[in-house]
């Protein structure tokens, strides 16, 4: 287990989900000595209407996860992440063999008799549960990087309440792919700041575009996801955004 944990929101089986995952394991996976995946699935007591966890249950779930670290994780049980969706929280692990998992989780959950739970283990030598489910895809990474940029703006005193020009970048293998992307994003109200030609640093054809928006935590994902999908459909990559930091105006 590494120190590089982060979370993102997505959908699992068409339902809202939150995934918290150890990103630092990616370069090690799959770990040959831990070829079995296992999970412990707990039914939430007070889920929100969308099936995610509520503030009302925060302390109880924190206590459960703290106990997992203290009593369930061991040199042969690696905790790799959790997903919360549809009124349940699933904790995911990798271990050498799943034969003792049912007894291990029964003994552990005896400390939490108020929680209904399910547990299972099975072979996963390629770590598909981690790599294909828990680890963020491009939209998951978009959520993570958006939050990081918004956090930096807030740390600099920006309340993220005012609209301003937000610049975005995308890159493509050829001009035709870039042109297809540009045509699509113009329909979304974006204007082109600059066309970027291949150079010594990178061989792709780029475009810098902009639109006036509010870069809030609540709004930014709805701004960037259409750009990410449009770039992907055109055969390219959306590579993020930046904007001017605005300081909060003192009252009076």
Automatic annotation (TrEMBL):
The lineage of its organism: Bacteria, Pseudomonadati, Pseudomonadota, Gammaproteobacteria, Lysobacterales. It comes from the Bacteria. It comes from Lysobacter niastensis. Residues 145-243 form the Regulator of ribonuclease activity B domain. This is DUF695 domain-containing protein. Residues 4-135 form the DUF695 domain. InterPro entries: DUF695, RraB-like_sf, RraB_dom.
